[in-house]
Design goal:
Elements lengths: L33 H15 L2 E6 L4 H9 L3 E3 L1 H10 L4 E5 L2 H10 L4 E3 L8 H4 L3 H9 L4 E6 L4 H6 L2 E3 L4 H10 L3 E5 L2 H11 L3 E3 L12 H10 L4 E4 L5 H4 L4 E2 L2 H10 L4 E5 L5 H7 L4 E4 L23 H10 L8 H28 L2
Parallel strand pairs: 1-2, 1-3, 3-4, 5-6, 5-7, 7-8, 9-10, 9-11, 11-12
Length: about 350
């Protein structure tokens, strides 16, 4: 894939304040029999609480497996919320990070939404605080505001459109064809990628994902030399030099599909390593290597896993089902505004899918 270049009309927004990262969360250390007992307890509680578990691809495989085995769902953030909207359960348990729980509540106001922990944040969300972003948008009233799903309810409420990585390019192209100029937030790498493909006039907010920013192009090149038969799968939140090396650039769902569809038996994957559970399910017999996070400027040997996602575990999942703590609440005025921008994307996606079926694409 050719390297990305900045759109000539793009003027980066001021970068918001920095934020502390949580300490690393070690793999759970369960006493003999504790893990199996917790899983059985969670499955029982889901039934007793009329609850369904929706888990993100980046959570621990134990949680993804429970969702699969109990009629829940494993997917990206917006798809998780849509599933919850269609499911008859009165309680949604969202295993992921805080904005995912908020998105579920935005789309499902009548349901109780719980999370294993409310401390699980997202660096993209944190890098775009509403108190900074809203005045920035107000200073550019001629621009349509497009925000990534990885944002707070308050930021979504200020936006005209919410998008996920799977549909961001299509929305940007659509708006550009209408002659609209955009503000994009918060991920600058995904923004640059969308800008290059769509040709849209975009002001880019300078947020970033701590996981995807850690992937290193030079170390990736070295790994590719060691495994020339491997296909390289890259999430577009990664830095441009990493994206430029990809065989496939796509959302989490698109990368899982590529792992299944491509004839390669070996893949190098540049996204959170929590996705490997679903990739192995989709493509049994194939092998997956994590893209390297070592090289010039690296601060860790392998940080291909979100430290906030790692806060979700069997113990706090069981506790939230037993106690009902960690319920998500969204101010109703904010929720209604956030629903407008989120629903706009959902409707656009439905129309696009229907159009492709009619055309046979």
């Amino acid at each position: 894939m050719k390297a990305q270049t900045s759109h000539p009309n793009a003027v980066p927004a001021p970068r918001p304040q920095q934020f502390p990262l949580p300490g690393s969360t070690p793999e759970p250390d369960y006493a003999p029999g504790e893990r199996d007992a917790l899983i059985a307890r969670i499955k029982r509680l889901l039934i007793e609480q009329d609850a369904v578990l929706v888990a993100h691809y980046y959570t621990h495989e134990d949680l993804q497996r429970i969702a699969d085995e109990t009629g829940g769902y494993v997917s990206d953030s917006l798809d998780m919320a849509r599933f919850g909207n269609q499911h008859p359960a009165t309680t949604l348990v969202v295993a992921g990070v805080r904005f995912m729980g908020e998105t579920a509540k935005i789309l499902n106001p009548e349901k109780r939404v719980l999370m294993p922990t409310l401390e699980a944040e997202c660096s993209l969300d944190l890098s775009c605080p509403a108190e900074d972003f809203i005045p920035f948008c107000d200073a550019h009233p001629d621009r349509t505001v497009v925000v990534y799903a990885n944002t707070s309810a308050a930021v979504k409420a200020r936006a005209d459109w919410v998008v996920t990585s799977s549909i961001a390019v299509d929305v940007a192209k659509y708006l550009a064809e209408r002659g609209e100029k955009l503000i994009w937030a918060p991920d600058r790498h995904l923004g640059q990628y969308v800008q290059e493909i769509s040709g849209a006039d975009m002001l880019l907010w300078k947020g970033g994902c701590v996981v995807h920013e850690a992937f290193k192009a030079e170390a990736l090149k070295a790994l590719m030399k060691q495994h020339p038969e491997a296909a390289v799968l890259v999430h577009p939140e990664s830095p441009e030099p990493v994206i430029a090396l990809a065989d496939v650039v796509g959302s989490t769902t698109q990368l899982i599909k590529a792992a299944h569809d491509l004839p390669n038996t070996l893949f190098i994957v540049a996204t959170d390593n929590g996705i490997l559970y679903k990739m192995r399910q989709a493509a049994p017999g194939k092998k997956f290597l994590e893209a390297p996070t070592v090289g010039v400027g690296a601060t860790c040997v392998s940080c291909a896993h979100c430290p906030w996602m790692a806060m979700n575990d069997l113990r706090n999942l069981a506790e939230v089902l037993e106690t009902g703590v960690n319920e998500i609440h969204v101010d109703e005025a904010i929720r209604v505004k956030a629903l407008r921008s989120t629903q706009r994307m959902i409707d656009f996606a439905k129309e696009r899918t229907a159009a492709k079926k009619v055309s046979g694409d």
